[in-house]
Amino acid sequence: MDALSYLVLKDCKSEKPYKLMNPYFTHQVLSKDDKDEDVWFADRCLPSVDWRGLEKVFIPINVVGMHWVLAEIDLQSKVVRVYDSMKTSRSRLHASKLCVRLPLLFRVIQVHPDVREAKQWNAEAVADVPQQEGGTVCGLMVISYTEALMLGLPLSPHCEYANVARKRWHFALRLWNLR
Questions:
Q1: Per-block average pLDDT, block size 10, for the chain (179 residues)?
Q2: Cα(first)–Cα(last) distance of the chain, in Å?
Q3: pTM assigned to the model
Q4: DSSP secondary-structure letter at 126?
Q5: Which of 15, 90, 98, 178 is found 20 to 30 A from 124 (Cα to Cα)?
């Protein structure tokens, strides 16, 4: 997931004020105790995170070590949207968990004052997201969603399951060319 995230960041020359965070960042945020402020302020890496001037932040979330979903934090609308390639997963719960942690996170990282002062964040599962048919392509689907959203492309047909094999080869070729 990290290598594919790197490709999306490298290749998305988006003029939009968007950012993709890596899975390690997500793990750090979701694993912290949402009640203990000292844990958050003791973190050495978080104060260097700068989200000032951003509209959206994309965060891949690993659900119970089995499934990947994409969370889109809309800093202007104060909404966390979840893009899930398997409607049966419980991804909205993880977005809700992220919503609980955002006010604490925003006290530690660099954000616009309006974002820092927002107390309530809502979570919503995005309807009509292209769905996977197999059980092992969720990571690739998340990267495809991220790429499309950062470039302003529609999710369908860009992220359709029928295009997964072609996308897998496309990403492999891009990774090979980096060496």
A1: 60 74 83 75 83 93 86 94 83 78 89 88 89 86 90 86 81 79
A2: 17
A3: 0.86
A4: P
A5: 15
